[in-house]
Amino acid sequence: MQAFFNGRYVKKDEEVIRLEDRGLTFADGLFEVLRTASGRPLFFQEHLERMIESSIELGIDFPYAIEEVRAFAEKLIEKNGLDEGELYIELTRGCDINREHRFPPKGTPPTFFMLAIPLRKIDPNNWKEGAKVVTYEDMRHKLCIHKTLNLLPNILAKNHAYAHRGYEALMFRRSPLGKYITEGGSSSYFCVSNGRLLTPEIDNILPGITRSKIINIAKEKGYKIEERRILLDEVLVADEVFLVSTVSKLMPIRQIDNRVFRAPGETTLVLMKLYEEVFQKEINS
Ligand code: PLP
């Protein structure tokens, strides 16, 4: 198995990352996860644009043009003989031998690497019967619009869910009106309520690529969409709730804590089918 590391292809077990890399010492960096199929990364432009916009905002040099990354990624996928899989991309602010919080001097090379790995295994019953999810406090920072390496709160949230036989955590923050659900540990979510689709506005959450595709698909299909803060109490009385992400696509929710839903719901099934069409079109494009 090979990885792409700072302009070259390396064996995956080769030790190439310096211990002083700011990605390791400070989680000072960004990542992306794309799906791959037929030797190509899917929805490449959207994922790379999100990463590059964040790198500009956070002042991390992005070392390549988008099309260069595409060519490197396709070659990496080929070298690993990967068909359906995941492309992981990481960018850090580079090495800092003194481990200073201060940004390193201008011109310090960033670290950029990619892994082409098999698609993670998810129990298919989650799509057929709906997944169980468990609520957990959203303890993250105010940079959730960026896909940063600081994933400790997400990891704690997801492992809390696993410990309670859940597939995913739904994270909540508190407001004077009560708890509101921001997003999953690694997914966005939608509710179907009285024929309308609700999803949180981009208020310190990740602007998910799948979320935005579902919004477009649903709008085209004539669904009314509300992007706004959604209280946990509203989620619990919704007709249907489903998760969305690059890796899981659309996943119906069968249970949130003790509340059980009929899953998959009718609207969820319609959107699962429409998203699959968009996905297949992207593979064949
Ligand atoms: N929200 C969070 C916190 C995530 O980590 C992810 C994906 O990993 C998502 C949402 C879904 O984003 P996307 O649809 O771009 O995969």
Kindly describe this structure.
With 285 residues, the protein is of the alpha+beta class. The protein folds into two domains: 2-118, 2-Layer Sandwich (D-amino Acid Aminotransferase, Chain A, domain 1), CATH 3.30.470; 125-284, D-amino Acid Aminotransferase, subunit A, domain 2 (D-amino Acid Aminotransferase, Chain A, domain 2, Alpha-Beta Barrel), CATH 3.20.10. Helix content is 31%, strand content 31%. It has eight helices and 15 strands. Strands 7, 8, 9, 10, 11, 12, 13, 14 and 15 form a nine-stranded mixed β-sheet that branches. Strand 11 (196-199), helix 6 and strand 12 form a beta-alpha-beta unit. The radius of gyration is 19 Å and the shape is globular. The mean pLDDT is 97. The structure holds pyridoxal-5'-phosphate. The site of pyridoxal-5'-phosphate (PLP) has 12 residues, from helix 6.
Please outline what is shown here.
The protein has 8 helices and 15 strands. With 285 residues, it is α+β, with helices and mostly antiparallel strands. Residues 33, 183, 186-188, 206, 208-211, 245-246 line the site of pyridoxal-5'-phosphate (PLP).
Shape: globular
* Oligomeric category: single chain
Q: Could you tell me the number of beta strands? A: 15
Low-confidence stretches: none
Which superfamily, in CATH terms, is the homologous superfamily of the largest domain? D-amino Acid Aminotransferase, subunit A, domain 2
Number of domains: 2
- In this structure, how is the largest beta sheet organized? 9 strands, mixed
Identify the bound ligands. Answer: pyridoxal-5'-phosphate
Portion of residues within helices? 25-40%
Radius of gyration: 19 Å
Terminus-to-terminus distance: 27 Å
CATH topology of the largest domain: D-amino Acid Aminotransferase, Chain A, domain 2
Q: Specify the number of helices.
A: 8
- Spell the H/E element sequence: EEHEEHHEEHEHEEEEHEHEEEH
**CATH architectural grouping of the largest domain:** Alpha-Beta Barrel
Mean pLDDT: 97
Q: What is the CATH C level class of the largest domain, in words? A: Alpha Beta
Q: In terms of structural class, how would the helical and strand content be classed?
A: alpha+beta
Give the DSSP E fraction (strand runs of 2 or more residues).
25-35%
